[in-house]
Design a protein that fits this description.
Layout (H helix, E strand, L loop, with lengths): L1 H14 L12 E3 L2 E3 L9 E4 L19 H12 L1 H14 L3 H10 L3 E7 L20 H16 L3 E8 L8 H4 L12 H18 L5 E5 L24 H15 L7 E4 L1 H4 L13 E7 L6 H14 L3 E7 L3 H12 L4 E5 L2 E2 L6 E2 L6 H8 L8 H15 L5 E2 L1 H7 L1 H4 L9 E2 L3 E5 L12 E2 L29 E4 L2 E4 L7 E8 L3 E11 L5 E6 L2 E8 L5 E7 L3 E5 L2 E11 L2 E10 L2
Parallel strand pairs: 3-4, 3-10, 4-5, 5-6, 6-7, 7-8, 8-9, 9-10, 11-12, 14-19
Antiparallel strand pairs: 1-2, 12-13, 15-26, 16-19, 17-18, 19-25, 20-23, 20-24, 20-26, 21-22, 21-25
Helix pairs in contact: 2-3, 3-13, 7-8, 11-14
Length: 583
C-alpha cells in the first residue's frame, strides 16, 4: 500500500513540475553538434518569448514610441502611477503562462528562449545606493523558476537570453530598452560588472538544472567600437575587442559556479559579425546567428557554416521569423538540413506572423492617437478600460491561434502534402470562404507571385501577404470591416480547397467577386479535369463593389477531392464560392 501511495505522489509531483524530469540530461556541444547526455544529436526547435519581460513598441503598434520605459511613461500619463504599476504586474502574469508552454509543447516546440530584461533581476546602475553594489530583485528569478517548472513538465529546454543588458548593448534602442541619455553598457564599467554578476547569479541558481538548455549571454550587440559614429550597428567592426572581452569575462564568472551548461555567444551587428571574436574560449560553446529577410539558400548561411568547420563548434539560429509561412518553411528546412536548431521570434504580438495574435482592444486606436500627438487625451476611465481589455487579450485563451503558422514550421518542413484549413462539406447549399484554402507549401496548396518579404535583399521588394490579415501564407488577404477576402490577384495565381462530396451530382457554382475591369477570367479545376474554363467575370464597377458571377453547372464526383480556383486573368477580388445542388 505504501509503495502504491508513494508512486502516486511521485507522479503528481512530476505532473506539476515540482521534481526534475529525468530524460535526455544536460545538453552539450560535441564537435559541430549539440547533443544530449547520451551523445544523441539534438535539433532545438524553439520559440522566443518576446514581449513578456521586455516590450518592444512594434509588437503592439507602438513603433513610434519604441522602448519599454517610454511605453510605461505613456501609460502613466494616461492612467497614473498606481494603475501603471498594476498594469505591469498583470502584464507579467498574463502574457506567458503554463497554458502557453503546454500549447507550444503540443505544437512541436522542444525549447524556449527567454528574453530577459535585467531590471527584473537587479537595479539599474544609477539606482544603486552604493556604487558597485548589486541589489537583487526576486521577481525575475521567481518568474524564471516558474517558467522552468512549466518547461520541465513538458520536457522542454529553457535557454536564458540576456536581451536587455544593463545600460543597453547597442544603438538599436527598443531591443534593450535603452535610454540614450545614459552611457551604454560599453561606456560604463559599473554596467559591465553588473552584467557579469547577473550571469554568475543566474548560473549559480540553475547550475544543476538539466532542463536549462544553455546561456545566451548577450543578445544582438550592435555597436561600433572602432567607429562609433560611422558604424553605429557594428556591422563593419573588424576587431570587436570589448565584445570578446565581456563574453570571456562572463564565461569565466559562469564557470566559477557552473561547468555543465552550454554557453551561447553572439557576434556584433545583431549577432552575426564574428570578426575578432573567435576562436572560442570554452569547450562547451555554441555560435548563434540571427537571420531575417534574406534568401533561404546555403549561400545565405555559408559564412556561419565556414566558422563551424573552422572552429569545430555547433551553430544555432538563435533568432528568426517576422515573415511569411513560405519563408518560415524554407528557412527551417535549410537550417535543419545542416544540423542547425532554431528559435523563432516570437510567440505572440499584434500581428499574424506568429502562432498567437493579440487582439486589438476596443478604444486602442484612440490611445494610439493620443500617444502620437494626433488626438485628444481619453479620460482615465476610458484609457484604463482599454488597457484592462489589453491585459485580458494577452491571455492565450483570448489570443487568435494561427494554425497555418505552426503547420508551416513543423508539418510542411517534413511533408509536401497539403492539409485542409477547414472542413468543407459540399451539400445542397454550401458556401466556402475564399480565404479558407488548404494549408501547405507554395505551388502545392496555392500559387502566388509574391510569397515572402526579402527586405534585407537590395532590389527585392516583395512582401508576402500584402493585406496582413487572417493568415500568414503568401496569398494577399485584406480585411474589410468584419469580412476578409483575397485581393491583388495576378494572372496565373490559384488556390486549392480540399472538399468532401458525400453524394455525386450536378451543382451550380458561382463566385463572389469584385473588379473594375472587363478582362478578368476565372477557372475551376478538379485534379486534371477542368470544370469551368475561363469564365469571364463581369465588371462590378469597382473593387469594393461585390457581385456574384453567373452560375456554371459542374459535375462533382463522390468523395474527398482537391479543387482549384485559377485566375486566368487577374485584377479582381475574391470573397466566396457558392455550390448549389441541382434538382
Amino acid at each position: 500500500m505504501f509503495k502504491k501511495i508513494f508512486t502516486i505522489i511521485l507522479s503528481l509531483l512530476f505532473i506539476n513540475g515540482l521534481m526534475p524530469v529525468w530524460g535526455q540530461g544536460f545538453l552539450k556541444a560535441k564537435g559541430k553538434l549539440i547533443v544530449n547526455e547520451k551523445g544523441e544529436k539534438v535539433i532545438l526547435r524553439g520559440m522566443g518569448l518576446g514581449g513578456w519581460m521586455l516590450q518592444e513598441g512594434y509588437m503592439f503598434r507602438l513603433s513610434n514610441i519604441g522602448q519599454q520605459y517610454k511605453i510605461k511613461a505613456k501609460i502613466q500619463e494616461a492612467v497614473g502611477e498606481e494603475k501603471t504599476k498594476q498594469f505591469y504586474e498583470s502584464w507579467l502574469a498574463n502574457h506567458t503562462t503554463k497554458a502557453d508552454i503546454d500549447s507550444m509543447a503540443a505544437w512541436g516546440f522542444n525549447s524556449m528562449r527567454l528574453p530577459i530584461h535585467y531590471n527584473l533581476y537587479t537595479l539599474p546602475v544609477d539606482e544603486e545606493k552604493t556604487p558597485g553594489q548589486n541589489t537583487w530583485i526576486e521577481k525575475g528569478f521567481a518568474m524564471t523558476d516558474s517558467l522552468l517548472a512549466w518547461c520541465k513538465a513538458n520536457k522542454i529546454y529553457l535557454i536564458l537570453d540576456l536581451h536587455a543588458a544593463p545600460n543597453g548593448q547597442g544603438n538599436d534602442l527598443p531591443i534593450a530598452d535603452r535610454d540614450p541619455s545614459k552611457p551604454t553598457l560599453w561606456e560604463s564599467e559599473a554596467a559591465i560588472q553588473k552584467t557579469i554578476a547577473l550571469w554568475r547569479k543566474l548560473a549559480e541558481r540553475y547550475a544543476n538544472e538539466p532542463w536549462i538548455g544553455g546561456y545566451d549571454i548577450i543578445n544582438e550587440p550592435n555597436y561600433g567600437f572602432e567607429d562609433p559614429k560611422g558604424d553605429v550597428r557594428g556591422t563593419n567592426e573588424k576587431k570587436n575587442e570589448p565584445l570578446r572581452k565581456l563574453m570571456v569575462d562572463i564565461t569565466k564568472a559562469i564557470r566559477e559556479v557552473d561547468n555543465k551548461h552550454i554557453i551561447i555567444i553572439e557576434g556584433n551587428g545583431f549577432g552575426n559579425n564574428y570578426n575578432g571574436v573567435l576562436p572560442t574560449w570554452d569547450d562547451n560553446m555554441v555560435l548563434s546567428f540571427h537571420k531575417y529577410g534574406n534568401f533561404n539558400t546555403v549561400d545565405a548561411i555559408k559564412r556561419f557554416l565556414e566558422l563551424r568547420d573552422q572552429y569545430n563548434v555547433p551553430l544555432w539560429l538563435g533568432e528568426s521569423g517576422e515573415n511569411s509561412n513560405t519563408w518560415f518553411y524554407e528557412c527551417i528546412k535549410l537550417v535543419e538540413s545542416n544540423d542547425i536548431g532554431w528559435a523563432w521570434w516570437q510567440n505572440k504580438k499584434m500581428n499574424i506572423n506568429n502562432p498567437l495574435e493579440i487582439r486589438t482592444p476596443e478604444g486602442y486606436s484612440k490611445l494610439l492617437e493620443f500617444w502620437s500627438g494626433k488626438g485628444p487625451k481619453p479620460t482615465e476611465e476610458e484609457a484604463w478600460k482599454t488597457l484592462t481589455q489589453l491585459l485580458e487579450n494577452l491571455k492565450i485563451k483570448n489570443n487568435v491561434f494561427h494554425k497555418d503558422v505552426v503547420d508551416a514550421m513543423f508539418r510542411q518542413v517534413q511533408s509536401a502534402e497539403t492539409k485542409p484549413f477547414k472542413d468543407h462539406q459540399i451539400t445542397d447549399n454550401t458556401t466556402i470562404e475564399a480565404v479558407d484554402f488548404d494549408m501547405g507549401r507554395q505551388r502545392l496548396a496555392y500559387y502566388d507571385r509574391d510569397t515572402a518579404s526579402y527586405h534585407y535583399t537590395p532590389g527585392v521588394n516583395t512582401r508576402g501577404n500584402r493585406g496582413g490579415a487572417y493568415r500568414n501564407d503568401g496569398v494577399d488577404i485584406q480585411r474589410e470591416g468584419t469580412a476578409v477576402h483575397i485581393f491583388s490577384i495576378e494572372d496565373g495565381e490559384w488556390l486549392q480547397y480540399t472538399v468532401n462530396v458525400p453524394k455525386a451530382g450536378n451543382y451550380n457554382v458561382s463566385f463572389e467577386i469584385s473588379t473594375a475591369n472587363d478582362s478578368a477570367r476565372i477557372s475551376l479545376l478538379s485534379g486534371k479535369k477542368t470544370l469551368i474554363n475561363e469564365q469571364p467575370l463581369e465588371n462590378t464597377g469597382g473593387l469594393q463593389q461585390w457581385k456574384t458571377s453567373a452560375p456554371q453547372s459542374v459535375r462533382l464526383e463522390k468523395g474527398v477531392q482537391q479543387i482549384r480556383v485559377y485566375a486566368n486573368k487577374g485584377g479582381f477580388n475574391f470573397r466566396r464560392i457558392y455550390f448549389k445542388k441541382k434538382d
